[in-house]
Amino acid sequence: MPQGAYLRLLLFFLGPAVLVYTLFSIYPLLATILNSFYSRQSDGSHLWAGLGNFHTLLLDPTWSGPFWNALKNNVIFFLIHMSVQNPIGLLLAALLSLPRLRFRATYRTLIFMPTMLSVVVIGFVWQLILSPLWGIARMFLNFFGLGFLFAPWLGVESSALITVSLISVWQFVGIPMILIYTALLAIPDELIDAATVDGLNQFQAFMWVKLPLIWPTIGLVSILTFVNNFNAFDLIYAMKGALAGPNFSTDIMGTLFYRTFFGNQLQLGNPAMGSAIATMMLIIILIGVMAYLFLVQRRIQRYSF
Amino acid sequence: MRKPLSAFAVHAILGLYTLLALFPIVLVVMNSFKARRAIFNTPLHPPSPANFDPVGYARVFGDSSLAFYYLNSITVTAGAIILTLLFGAMAAWALTEYKFRWNTLLALFLSIGIMVPIRLGSVAIIQLVAELNLINTLTALILVYTAQNLPLAIFILSEFIAQIPKDLREAARCDGLSEYNIFFHVILPLIRPAMATVAVFTMIPVWNDLWFPLLLAPAGGRQTITLGVQQFLGQYITDWNAVLAALSTAIVPVLLLYVIFSRQLIRGLTSGAVK
Question: Which CATH architecture has domain A62-299?
Answer without folding.
Answer: Orthogonal Bundle (1.10)
